[in-house]
Amino acid sequence: MVIKVFLASSSGSTAIKKKQQDVVGFLEALKVEYSQMDIACNEENRMWMRENVPEEKKPSNGIPLPPQIFNEAGYCGDYETFFDAKEDNQVYAFLGLPPPPGSKEALQAEKALIVENGNDAEEHPDDDTLKKEIPAEECNGGVHGEEEVTEEILSEEGGEVEESGGAEEKAAEEAEGKAAEDETAEDGAAEDETAEDGAAEDEAAEDEAAEDEAAEDEAAEDEEAEESAEDTEEASEDTKARVEEEEAEEEAEDEEAKEEEELLQLEEEEDEAAEAEEEGEEE
């Protein structure tokens, strides 16, 4: 497929020259292959362009002005439709060409396709990840407790089974162990209380820091709002000036385009008159 751009190389209209340069420059920036079809120096190109522009796309006088863009014999559009496609990142669709992978237009097409068909690429958690590992001991019926072994006191014949002092020593050891446990419990309670106090202090410090941060954020937001209001006011003034300038340029371009239309119409009339004269002479 070959893109054809019909233009007038010797046009006297600045507006038409600017539009032609805009189309050609953008196609070269996109590295799109195209052919320039000059209608000023080639009568066949001019007649072909006028015959193949659809009637509904022709101006009121029936004479389409360059630039006109075709894909082979298929009509793509004029400068206005090309400009709209460029603004919407739809130039390849306008030209009837597939967008190159990785381009903005290709990404937009992929996103639109995903929105239309639904996102099938959602990740669904595997059932295996939802299963909890079961310890081998639970699978095997639980952990067997240690067997309690009772010591059997064997006494020799005629010997004493237990000395009287052994019971007293045992009672003293039990009392010491209980006192040590009580002391350990008291130390643990004191540590827990200290930890709770420290946690409360940390929480209070965090709350205070959060309040300070919130105050700073609020002040920053107020400052940003003031700056945004100033920027908006300046942008409005700039926009107004730019709109006025663009309107003046459009008026000038319209006048130039009108002159070009009149010039082309005169040229056509002259051509038709010359052809009529030639036919009259031949007769």
3D structure, described in words:
The protein has helices at about 15-30, 45-50, 80-85, 90-95, 105-115, 125-130, 135-140, 165-280; strands at about 5, 35-40, 70, 75-80. It is an alpha+beta fold. It is elongated. It has a four-stranded mixed β-sheet with strand order 2-1-3-4, sandwiched between helices. Strand 3 and strand 4 (about 75-80) form a beta hairpin. The longest helix has about 120 residues, at about 165-280. It is built from eight helices and four strands, in the order βαβαββαααααα. Helices cover about 65% and strands about 5% of the residues.
List the keywords.
283 residues, 4 strands, four-stranded mixed beta sheet, alpha+beta
Low-confidence stretches: 120-134, 136-164
Percent helix: 55-70%
Q: How many DSSP-defined strands?
A: 4
| Overall SS class | alpha+beta
Biggest sheet character: 4 strands, mixed
- From the alpha carbons, calculate the radius of gyration and give it in angstroms: 46 Å
Mean pLDDT: 75
Number of distinct helices: 8
Distance between the termini: 44 Å
* Proportion in β-strands: 5-15%
How would you spell out the order of helices and strands? EHEHEEHHHHHH
Strand order of the largest sheet: 2-1-3-4
Shape: elongated
